[in-house]
Amino acid sequence: MRIATWNINSLKVRLPQVLDWIKARQPDVLCLQEIKLEDCNFPAAELEAAGYHCLVSGQKTYNGVAFLSRLPGSDVVRGIPEFADDQKRLIAASFGGVRILCAYFPNGQSVGSDKYEYKLRWIGALRDWLGHELQVHPRLVLAGDFNIAPEGRDVHDPTAWEGQVLFSEPERAAFRALEGLGLKDAFRLFEQPEKVFTWWDYRMMAFRRNMGLRIDHILLSEPLVPACKACFVDKEPRKAERPSDHAPVVADLELPQA
DNA sequence: ATGGCTACGATCCGTAGA
Fold first, then answer.
1. How far apart are CA A231 and CA A208, in angstroms?
2. How far is the CA of A95 from the C1' of B15 (A)?
3. What pLDDT is stored for residue A256 in this prediction?
C-alpha cells in the first residue's frame, strides 16, 4: 500500500498537477491538505475518472483536507471529535484494515500569538483523541502537513530558525508527544540524504537554494513499522510551473493479506 | 534591509500561509 501526503495549496489551481502525479506515482491513498474549496466544488468527476474515490472535508478559501483512494474508505470521521472547530483540518477513514488520518495542523503564525496557542491546543486535542483511536485501530497512520520541523536536521538553517514558529521548542515537544503514543516518523526509519525538506518559501528563490523545512510527515503506529519498506520526499512537483510550496511525501507499506 | 511569493476574495489592497 502506497500512502502519500501533499499540501497542494489550492486544488483548483493544482488539479492538473495532482492528476499527473497520481498517474505517475500510483498512490493507493493520497492525503491532500489546503484544498481551499468547498465540498460542492471538489473536482470529484475528474479524479474518479482517474480511478480514485474521494472523501472531502472542505471549506471556502482556507484549509480543507481530502482523501483520494483506490479503494473506498470506511468509517469516515471529519474533525477531531469533541474539539469544536470551524476549520476543516482533519479527516480520518479506514482503507484495507489501515486507519489513516489526514491532518492539516495549524500554522501558528508566530510564537506567542493567538494562532500559536490554537495550534498547541489543536495538537493537544489530536493527541488526546489519538490515544483512544489507537486502542480501536492499532494499525494507524497519521499523515499530513504538521507545520513542525521536529529536529535541527529538518531545517536548512537551524540556528536562524531556533525558537521561530514551525521550529519552537513547544511545537517540537508537541511532536514528540505524538511520538510518545508509539507513532514513528516513517522518513526516519531509513537512511536518508542530508537536507531533505518538504516545504520551501515561494520567496527568495528558496527552492533553488534548498532553503527548506521538513514539516510534512507520515507517522506509523508500531504494528505498521515492520511493514514500511520505503519513505521518501518527491521533489519533482516543486519544480513545476505554478507549484505548491510543499512537496509530497510517500511511504510504501507491504501489508499481509487482510 | 525582517522584505522577497502565491492564492483568495474582495478590489486596485488585506488576509493568510510558513
1. 23
2. 37
3. 78
